[in-house]
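$ fold --in a.seq
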Amino acid sequence: MSLRPQHPIQFLAALIAAFLLWYALAADRIENISVRNLKAPLTLANIPRDLVVVTSSVPDTVSLQLRGPLTRALDSGNPPEVLLDLSDARPGLNSYLINVRDIELPREVEVVSIDPPAITLELEQQTTRVVPVKPRIEGTPAPGFILNGYRVVPAQYTVQGPESLVLALESIDTSVISVEGATGPVEAMIQPVLPDPLLRILGFGSLQIIIDIAPVPEPTGTPAQE
């Protein structure tokens, strides 16, 4: 049994169809290659537990210029992220180059440029210290009465943060409580106030203040009138 040769016209039509399909796919790939600038969120990862970043100017994002089939490869709802690994950080100034491996991207997307190309961070040893509470009392009691003292519960808190800030903290301030016009004890729940956002209170709970307002003492030792 012998196979009949394919008709030349059919063969030519199949060849043209295959060429057109290849051309369409190739053209689609070429048309989808583009260059785009975008802002990628910067995440500081693997910071050692005993260190804290004290740099105030850490950028929230890094500018990237990308090249590739971006429309197809990138999810507009989930932009690329720059993960900066700080596992080898030490106290003091640390400079980190941002490498392509720090950026989570599809394999077909190329990084053209990174701005800034490096991040400098200052890290400091983290420490804790017990610090007394010093309430902010304002106002003047009613005539004939004086502020006779106060009691704060708890009287101190454990504060954690960068070593330099913790050691410089002499006391913990509070929100203001007024004794204006008071004729008797003043009790209130108040909030501790720390001077820097890098400081935090461990085991934070309610803070109560009891202020003793008493009558002005009668003068003593006044000579008797004749």
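$ fold --in b.seq
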Amino acid sequence: MIAAVVHFAAGDPITSWYTALTWLLMVAAVAYLMVSTWRFYSFKDIDFGSRHPFRLILFLAALFASIYYFSRPVLFGVALLYMLSGVFWRLQWVFRRRSGPPPPTYKEASLTS
């Protein structure tokens, strides 16, 4: 994400304090996510040996073309979407976990088996 920030700004120095504060908060959030135990999608289950739908190939071609022609905003957007997807899935897991009944205590679990 840090490289995306530098690439997005084209290496120009930050001139306003609120922009610097925004980048500082974003870098702190990314640093926290890097050392946390939150799960992010790893793309390991994608099988490139199998057949893919034509729409997926068009989507990937459009993505690569947009990265080639508009690398600054597109790479920053991809990095931001990836970061927000991890936060979204973590929040979804937290809210889904709380809606169910609590797990049985150790005594209750040992009495049933």
